[in-house]
Amino acid sequence: MSARPSSRRPRQRSRSSAGPMAVWLIALLVALIATVQLRSQAEVERSLVQADPATLAFSIDQLSRSNDALEAQISDLAQRKSKLQSGGSTAADQALQTELDQLRILEGLVPVHGPGVVLVIDASGLTALDLQDALNNLAAGGAEAMAVNDQRVVAGVPIVQTAGGVTVGGTLTPAPWTIVAIGDTNRLAETSDAMTQQLRGDRRVRQATYRVESDIVIRAVVTERPFVYGVP
Amino acid sequence: MGRTQPLSTALVALVALAVGFLLAGQVKAQLLTPSNQVGRNQALIRSVQDLERTNQADRANIQTLRAQIDALEAQAASQSQTTQGLQNQVADLRAHAGLTPLHGPGVEVVLTSGPPGSDPSGQSRNLITYQDVQDLVNLLFASGAEGVAVSGRRITPLSAFTGSEGEVIVDQGPPLFSPIRIVAVGDRNGMEAALGDPNSLPSLGIREIQFQLTLRVRGAPDETLPAFDGSLEAPHVGKA
C-alpha cells in the first residue's frame, strides 16, 4: 500500500513538470523564431542607405539630367578631337577660336543674346542671400547667362549685403530687381513659375512676375580679374 | 467532467486558432509593408548607383578627351605662331573658368552635419544643406577667393547648387554628403577674416549652437584645386 503512493508520486511529478517544460520549450522556440525573424528584417533595413524614396527619386532625376549633359559634352569634345587630328594648325586655330568665344560667353566677358526669361521682383527687406538664392535657382534651372538690373552675374561675382543694401559686383543694386536669364526656356519657365509662386507668399514681396522671351540681349559684361594669389 | 473536458479543449483550440490567425495577419501586415518598401528602395538605390557609375565614367572620359585635345593643340601651336597666340588666350580663359588646376594660398573649410537626432523637431536642421554650401562659396568669392572647389568639385562660372536633406549636388553631381570640404585659393587673410566674422553666415552660426553642426576653418600656404571635369555646354546663348 505504501509503495503505491510512492510509486505514483514520481510519475505525477514527471507529468506535471513535463507540461510546463513543454510550454517553456515552445515559448523559447517561438521567441527564438520571432527574434530571428525580426532581427533579419532589421538587418535588411539597416543595410540600406539611410535615404527615403523622395531623396532617391530626386537623385535619379538629377543624375539622369547630369549624365545627359556630360554625354553632350563628350560628344562635343570627341568631335573637336577628331577635327584636330585631321586638320593640322588650321583646324587647331578654328577649334581654339570657337573655344575662346565660348569661354568669353561663359565668363561673362562679352555681350550675349538668346531665348530666356525676365523676372521682376519688387520687395522691401530682401537681402543678398535672397538674391543669391534666386540666381542659384535659375542657374540650376538651366540659365546659361544672367544679369540683375543690368549687372552681369556669373558664379564668383560677389553679391554682398552692405549697410546701403545689396551690391552685385560692387555696384549697389536696390529692388525692384529685374533678373534676366538666357537658356532653355522650358526649364527656365518652370523654375521661374515655382520661384514667383513662392515669392508671392513672402510678406516682404510686393510683386513677383516673369515672362518668357524668344530673344533677350545682355549687354553688361564682367571685368576679368587677373590671378593675384593663384597659380594655374 | 468527461463531457466538459473535450468541450474546453475544443474551445481552447478555437481560441488558439483565432489568435493564430490574428497574429499571422498582424505579423504579415507589419512585415510585408516594410518588405515592399525595402524592395522599392533597393530598386531606387540600384538605379542611383548605376547612374553614379555612368557619371563617374563620363567624367573620366571628359578629362581624358580634354587632355588629348590639349596635347593636339600644343602640337599644332608648336608649328604656328597664330595657333600659339590663340592657345595662350584659351589657356588663360580656361584657368579662370576652372578648367585647369589652380594652387596657391587659401583656406580649407570642413562643414559637418550635427549628430542624428540633434534636431528634436524632426526638421533635420542638423543636416548640411546645399544653401549652406552656396552661402559659404559666395562668402569665399566675396572675400577674395580666385578659385573654389567643393569636395573635389571645381566651381565654374556656370556652377549651381541643388540637393535635398543632407545631400548637396554641385552642377552635374554626384551627390555629396557630410562632411563637405570646401577649398579656396586666393586672399587667405581676407577669407579667414570673413569666415571668422560671426555675422557672415547667420543661419550656420545659429545651427552650430542649436544642432551641433561644425564649421572647421584652416588656412594654408598652398592649397590645390582640381580642374573641372563636367560639362560647360551652353547651347542657348550666343555672342550678341
Give structural notes.
The complex is a heterodimer of chains A (232) and B (240). In chain A, 55% of the residues lie in helices and 22% in strands. Chain A has helices spanning 3-47, 53-106, 128-140, 185-200; strands at 112-123, 143-148, 151-153, 159-162, 165-168, 171-172, 177-183, 205-218. In chain A, the strands form two sheets. Chain A has a five-stranded antiparallel beta sheet, with helices on one face. In chain A, strands 4-5-6 form a three-stranded antiparallel beta sheet, covered by helices on one side. In chain A, a hairpin with a 2-residue loop joins strand 2 (143-148) and strand 3 (151-153). Chain A is extended. In chain B, 51% of the residues lie in helices and 20% in strands. Chain B has five helices and nine strands. Chain B has helices at 4-77, 81-97, 130-142, 188-196, 202-211, and strands spanning 102-112, 145-150, 153-154, 161-162, 167-170, 176-177, 180-186, 214-225, 238-239. In chain B, strands 3-2-7-1-8 form a five-stranded antiparallel beta sheet, with helices on one face. In chain B, helix 1 (4-77) runs antiparallel to helix 2 (81-97). The longest helix of chain B is centred in the first third of the chain and has 74 residues, at 4-77. At the A-B interface, helix 1, helix 2, strand 1 and helix 3 of A face helix 1, helix 2, strand 1, helix 3 and strand 2 of B. Strand 1 (112-123) of chain A pairs antiparallel with strand 9 (238-239) of chain B.
Which keywords apply here?
heterodimer; A: 232 residues; Alpha-Beta Plaits; five-stranded antiparallel β-sheet; extended; disordered N terminus; B: alpha+beta; 51% helix
| Physical arrangement of strands within the biggest beta sheet of chain A | 3-2-7-1-8
Helix content of chain B: 40-55%
- Number of helix segments of chain A? 4
N-to-C SSE series of chain A?
Answer: HHEHEEEEEEHE
| Terminal residue distance of chain B | 105 Å
Overall shape of chain A: extended
Major sheet characteristics of chain B: 5 strands, antiparallel
In terms of quaternary structure, the protein is heterodimer
The counted number of beta strands of chain A is 8
Radius of gyration of chain B: 29 Å
Range of strand content of chain A? 15-25%
Beta percentage of chain B is: 15-25%
Q: What's the number of structural domains of chain B?
A: 2
Low-confidence stretches of chain B: none
CATH class of the largest domain in chain B: Alpha Beta
Major sheet of chain A: size, sense and barrel closure? Answer: 5 strands, antiparallel
